[in-house]
Design brief:
The chain is built from 11 helices and 2 strands; from the N terminus they run βαααααααααααβ. By secondary structure, the protein is mainly α. The longest helix is centred in the first third of the chain and has 32 residues.
Length: 302
């Protein structure tokens, strides 16, 4: 198990909090990174919704201008409360589970963890984290996509908790897990690529360069793999989650995949790739650097 030599805590308390620290550090680092990346996520969702609705494709710069002109600058941070809550649920869970299983792997394989083991625990931690965080993720997508529907059909959500309340009222409690399947599959693919690739590349580069260069290069490489593997699932997730109760456009994951593929080909799923990568890579880099810095400040011991 990872040990944190926290100087300001007495010894009995140190022992008690040790198992929970990887979870807390993951949630805090993910939340801080989200504060910086939220506008990019908003733009990514708009790109995906435009593609799904066969609307005119805009460049990222024109998309920003359109959003700011129509909805105001602060709309770029629409859903920030939901995004932070999602990180506190999703990233707390996935990083905590991944770090715990990763430390077990170091003992099991004498410090030389095989890549397939990293992929396996990435899948597990991502899937569990996504299930826990799906209510907040659904609320975030609903808030961000509301302005894309005709005015007479908009929900006009007033905030994160108002969105949660209305989802529960209109869809029932189980409605919080609408679109959970693609969310979980997306999370499994992104975590498999991100965490396993990051750890493997970091291990290979560490002997040769400064640790911060290692974090940036490793995060950038893992960001490419993460974006490429997960974007189709992210596209489907957004399409399913934006649906309102009544007459949904899609019957499920498979129908959503087939319908969009027939209408736009494989390129439709990658319509927002550049924006998605610019969200994923910086978020990965920031989250992992913050995680390393916070862990080090708390006296993490290998």
């Amino acid at each position: 198990m990872v040990y944190y030599d926290i100087q300001f805590l007495p010894e009995p308390s140190k022992t008690y909090v040790q198992p929970f620290l990887p979870f807390a550090i993951g949630g805090i680092s993910g939340s801080l990174a989200t504060l910086c990346i939220q506008p990019v996520d908003m733009i990514k969702v708009k790109h995906q919704l435009n593609a799904a609705c066969n609307q005119r494709k805009l460049s990222t710069i024109n998309m920003v201008k359109t959003i700011v002109h129509n909805e105001g600058f602060l709309s770029l941070y629409k859903g920030l409360g939901a995004a932070i809550t999602r990180q506190l649920l999703y990233t707390t869970t996935r990083f905590g589970i991944f770090d715990t299983l990763n430390e077990y792997g170091k003992i099991r394989y004498n410090g030389n963890i095989p890549l397939y083991y990293g992929f396996g625990i990435g899948l597990i931690s991502g899937g569990i984290g996504a299930f826990v965080g799906n209510p907040a993720d659904l609320a975030l997508v609903r808030m961000q996509s509301d302005s894309n529907v005709p005015k007479e059909k908009r929900k006009n959500y007033k905030g994160f908790f108002n969105t949660l309340f209305r989802i529960a009222k209109e869809d029932g409690v189980l409605g919080f897990w609408r679109g959970a399947s693609p969310t979980i599959v997306r999370a499994m693919s992104i975590n498999m690529a991100m965490l396993a690739t990051y750890e493997d590349v970091k291990k290979r580069l560490t002997p040769y360069m400064n640790k911060y260069y290692v974090y940036i290069i490793s995060g950038s490489i893992s960001g490419i793999f993460s974006a490429t593997f997960s974007l189709p699932f992210d596209f489907v997730k957004t399409c399913l989650q934006k649906q309102n109760v009544g007459k949904p456009e899609y019957r499920g994951i498979t129908h959503c995949f087939i319908k969009n593929f027939r209408e736009g080909g494989i390129s439709r799923f990658y319509a927002s790739y550049n924006t998605y990568y610019m969200r994923i890579a910086p978020h990965v880099i920031l989250t992992l650097i913050l995680k390393e810095v916070i862990s080090s400040s708390l006296g993490r011991k290998p």
